[in-house]
Design brief:
Strand content of chain B: under 5%
Order of helices and strands of chain B: HHHH
Distance between the termini of chain A: 75 Å
Helix content of chain A: over 70%
Shape of chain B: flat
Oligomer: heterodimer
Helix content of chain B: over 70%
Distance between the termini of chain B: 50 Å
Largest sheet of chain B: none
Number of strands of chain B: 0
Structural class of chain A: mainly alpha
Structural class of chain B: mainly alpha
Number of helices of chain A: 9
Chain lengths: 191, 138
């Protein structure tokens, strides 16, 4: 295995680890900051720390669990030093509905606004959301990466969703439904 | 038929669930980004730099040890001298307690209140900081 080779002093063997895990680590960083260049910088730092701390991996957990936990620590401290957004959640508005021809574009924008709104959550709520969806909605994996009990992660996740739901109450409606609702309300007001 | 409160609560819950479902769909369907072509090379360059860097110089314990022993000796000697002189003084104080005038005793009582007020202020400040941290505002 590459880890043994690296521990035996073969630095080049670490390239295999980088090749295997670069995608997940960069994508995880991307979800933390939604800035491509910064995501790569943070992932690079995580790999360097992994290289330095490889001897400290005690094999009690899988390599991926150890690597993700280490990366989460790096990303958390990087974002503490230089936060990504300074817009409070209250100031992020739900995008208004658009005309039908722009529906797809509006839909895309709505999704992007929601994803960015995740970054406006306080860190204790943001991280469970980021890691829960990164781990394909697996609370256990998110909890292991954060080094927290599953119950704590579930509670924080519920609170985060509640905050987002209050901010985006019309998420479940499609663009057309929302346009029709607005027109209906307008019609009623004219009557 | 007029909608009952029960129906309204049910529809509210359904709406909440639908919103959370939509949120799950959007956040789970994140597009994957591909690391740039030079990413792995850049990582390996940094790793090789780290590997080539000279091993950090270990702390010179052998050189520092005599100094530490000397400092410990000085402090030990100081403590011994302090005890030697303070012990008879304390003994004498216990046998002949000093007479504290009323005015001085009163000012001591006031000082006690000041200390108590400071302790209460410190306690409430620490509690509020803890609550703020727990709420996630910091």
């Amino acid at each position: 295995m590459e880890v043994e080779q690296v521990l035996a002093g073969d630095t080049e063997a670490f390239e295999g680890i980088v090749g295997r895990w670069q995608g997940p680590l960069v994508n995880m960083a991307w979800r933390y900051c939604r800035d491509r260049a910064r995501a790569e910088e943070m992932a690079q730092e995580a790999f360097v720390r992994a290289w330095r701390g490889l001897a400290g991996w005690r094999r009690e957990s899988s390599f991926s669990t150890w690597l993700f936990a280490l990366a989460a620590n790096v990303y958390r401290s990087e974002l503490k030093r230089f936060p990504t957004v300074d817009v409070p959640l209250e100031e992020i508005a739900e995008p208004a509905s658009a005309a039908n021809q722009y529906e797809e574009m509006a839909e895309h924008r709505r999704h992007e606004v929601l994803r960015r709104a995740v970054l406006a959550l306080p860190m204790r709520y943001r991280e469970p959301v980021v890691l829960y969806y990164f781990h394909e909605m697996d609370v256990g994996a998110a909890a292991r990466t954060m080094g927290l009990p599953e119950g704590t992660v579930k509670a924080r996740l519920a609170r985060a969703r509640e905050l987002l739901r209050k901010r985006f109450p019309h998420l479940n409606e499609s663009g057309a439904t929302r346009t029709n609702a607005v027109l209906r309300r307008g019609g009623e007001a004219l009557r | 038929m007029k909608p009952t409160k029960h129906h309204e609560t049910n529809s509210g819950m359904q709406r909440t669930e639908a919103t959370i479902g939509a949120m799950d769909r959007i956040l789970a369907a994140e597009e994957e980004i591909v690391p740039s072509s030079g990413f792995a090379t850049a990582v390996m360059e940094r790793v090789c730099e780290e590997a080539a860097a000279p091993v950090p110089i270990p702390f010179p314990w052998k050189r520092v040890a005599p100094g530490l022993v000397l400092v410990a000796g000085v402090f030990g000697w100081g403590a011994r001298v302090a005890v030697r002189f303070a012990w008879p003084a304390l003994h004498e104080l216990a046998q002949n307690p000093p007479h504290i005038p009323v005015a001085a005793a009163l000012s001591l009582e006031e000082a006690g209140w000041v200390v108590l007020a400071l302790a209460v202020s410190l306690g409430s400040w620490m509690l509020s900081m803890r609550l703020v941290r727990r709420s996630g505002m910091m």
